[in-house]
Amino acid sequence: MYRSHTCSELRLSHVGSEITLAGWVHRRRDHGGLIFIDLRDRYGLTQIVIDPSQEGVHELAEGVRSEYVLQITGSVRPRPDGSANKNIPSGDIEVVVNSLKVLNPSKTPPFEIDIEKDANEELRLQYRYLDLRRDRMKNNIVARHKIVKTMRDYMDRHDFVEIETPILIKGTPEGSREYIVPSRVYPGKFFVLPQSPQQMKQLLMVAGMDRYFQIARCFRDEDQRGDRQPEFTQLDIEMSFVESEDIMHLTEGLMIELVEKFVPNKKMLKKPFPRLTWKEAMSKYGSDKPDLRFGMEICDVSDLVRGCGFKVFADAVAQPEGVVFALRVEGAAGFTRKQIDDLTEVAKIYGAKGLAYIVLEKSEEGTGAGTGGAGVKSPIAKFFSEEEMKKLVEASGAKTGDIVFFGADTFDVAATALGQVRLACGDMLGLRKGDELAFCWIYEFPLFEYSKEDKRLVSAHHPFTAPMKEDVAMLDTDPKHVRAQAYDLALNGSEIGGGSIRIHDAVEQAKIFEVLGVSKSDCEIRFGHMLRAFEYGAPPHGGIAWGIDRLVMIFQNEPNIREVIAFPKDQKAKDLMMGAPSEIPAAQVAEMHIEVMKED
Fold first, then answer.
1. Which of 77, 362, 500, 575 would give a disulfide with 580, using CB separation of 3.0 to 4.6 Å?
2. pTM (global) more than 0.70
3. Alpha-helical regions (H) of 263-400
């Protein structure tokens, strides 16, 4: 037996016992002959002591270095008075070694493991098996396990069945780019890796499974960001005979249980979670996943600027769906010109042509129109009369010492750009507090959105999302404004989960494909299995999927999801540890009946 106890298990009650431990050398200290080693395993640390009187053991210990793997046998004794370490569970005792065996030596690690210190991420990913020995990473992986276990227990208590769905499936392009797997047995044919188990879980409802869940692996061949990976994990849920309210209520209960169990030190701002329609969220916060840890709401001033002397505003509201929005930033009159320029660049990234603003200073300092004891300092003040400016300031709710930023464009562009400016201002003013959790539900999303790239309507979520019942007639007359029976769960400005009530009627599903411009022949080729299933008594059903990686990332206060995944890809979707993707032998390529084309 390699060990009788773990390195976090021994207490004063074990004093006098002969024990065996195995683990890694965390730290080694030589105190004038006495050698102290902190021995580490997954569970914690134990201090072991090698006395010079143990000649063979002491000589061996002198050659031991960090990350050597040791097995020791010894007796447990209390630490001397005043030397207990209250920071570790085994800090009241130490083990006097009488036998030591080096199970495996170690090269000097490329970064420090015993100290939580920033290291180059590429190096960490290349040596991930070493990175995972560090407390931070170990704690993240263990926390993830416990969070997922709690999810499973909760779903089991609510009569859900965990069902695994295939990883190799048929390609049915409906969203992000898919990973393609060539078939050796069927030349010229391919599987794809699932973007999600969407179709399978709906077919499980047709099969009468009623309540399904899965900790599902999903794959998307898309550009990477801090909260994205080419392969990721989600809590996947589907239920029969339900409406949106049933799914939102059930999953909100799970989220509250997770927060109270795993991050009790964080303040949950509102229970039950606030609910906003998509239109409300975009109009007030410029985001369909708003951060509600702070206010700073956007307001619509379009009616106040119609026909005004500032051409940018007047032209914007004269266009179809054109708006002018205002964002009051309280106490921001001290922003420097550089800070305002930086915020302007933020707005431009999200489609705005610029960022107009007014600063409210004391009257004697400002220029332009006076407004209730404040003066307006702004490049656009000269285009407005005193009365017009006063109405703008009143509409925004601004006071002396504030800045008001304006977005003038189509609804989507103006709202989104100001929404990002709002978040940037929240960061600059310290309003996005790490110890607060602000959940909210967003519902009534648009069913479709216009793709400039494809020059047609595409599904805002996926083509199996049911329209609002009262909007079904508009599928023929005004599909762009049809609302979906969809709902997202947002947390602190991140989307945590998203779902919808699904279409369960073959005729209605075919109508959606018609609006999307999918021909009947393409429907049969790509989705014939779904349409046929709906002809055999498909129940009303709906579901939701949560991003587990993103949720654990937020719970663990990590900057990106790579820190909560055991073996992630880097930001270029490469596995630096194994060197993937990589070339494969030509014979194996030929066996797949494919040809690799060389780029110029």
1. 575
2. yes
3. 278-285, 311-318, 337-349, 386-396
